[in-house]
Amino acid sequence: MYQLAAILTGRGAKLAALLMALIFPLLASNEYQVYVMASAFVWAIAVYGLNIITGYCGQLNLAHGGFFAIGAYTLAILTADHGWSFWPAFIAAAFSSALLGFLVGIVSLRLKEHYFAIFTLCVGFIIYLLLDKWEELTHGALGIRDIAAPNGLGLVDFSETRPFYYLVLGFLVFAIWFMGRLSSSLLGRTLLAIRNGDDLAESLGINLMRNKVLAFVLSTIYAGVAGALYAGMVRFVGPEEANINHTFDMITYLLVGGIGTLFGPLVGTIGIVWITQSLQFLEDYRMIIFGPLLVLLVIFMPRGLVGSFLGWKYRKDAEAAQAVSAKQDAASETRVSSTQSDGVNEHA
């Protein structure tokens, strides 16, 4: 079992997972399954953004779904209403989410713990109201249709499901790679210190406000990019994209997979999306099954699937290291005893 765990956390496992993702469209029985997986990848990108501010920095942002909607609406407005092509609008979507994230961050991050969460909850609700009521800009409750799909420069048609799947997969791989680099960098360790306690981090000379705002902006860029990809995939957006339920869904994905881990957001998002799809035949009653499963997971695996697995592996590593150390100590004592015995014999 321990050897299997070592294999599952190695570089070979990552390459195998990437290979499976690459060949998934070839193995899928229908195009809808490819669409569902592409949708899961889009949401996973947004969840990775939430993992930065909540998992690494320890700040519960309840407006994350609102920033997702900002990215989607920015791309929708620029392409459908102003005739922009997809990629310039895509860059503008990421920039607009980052700008709004900076403005919200410099105000909200002065608050701590549940006060910050309540403030961002209000921000998310304000975003929803603006999208719903500002009809001149957002078309109100009717939403925006005919959103441009990513253009492939005449080489690829990203309006088709399979090419779009590979496009989203590319963005997801980059998002995970960047998260890995971030977690092992000085900034990542700084964010973990802030998560462990503001007073402790400040005593170490860490600029709390600057690092918190930077983490918040990075998380909103992830959300904006995911929202823009979602708009390009669905080709329609409405005010419901900013619904607080989307934020709670992303928090669930993060908790199930493992908060503060590298692959937790991916495992949690893909797992729950596919479980939800498989229970669709139950319609509104699917939560009768799905709800208790989540409760049991939170009770028995509070660190999530990936977090619990890594915790178990670290314990096994520590036990293995202690066993090796004990063997070395025993061997050393044996050599000392043997040397002393030889010395006594020679003296005799």
From TrEMBL:
Bilayer-crossing regions: 12-28, 34-53, 60-80, 86-107, 114-131, 163-180, 213-231, 251-275, 287-306
Keyword Membrane: yes
Keywords, alphabetical: Cell membrane, Membrane, Transmembrane, Transmembrane helix
Region described as Disordered: 326-348
Subcellular location: Cell inner membrane
Membrane topology of this protein: Multi-pass membrane protein
CDD domains assigned to the protein according to its UniProt record, in alphabetical order: TM_PBP1_LivM_like
Record carries keyword Isomerase: no
Biased composition (Polar residues): 334-348
Entry-linked InterPro entries: ABC_transp_permease, LivM-like
Protein name: Branched-chain amino acid ABC transporter permease
Organism: Allohahella marinimesophila
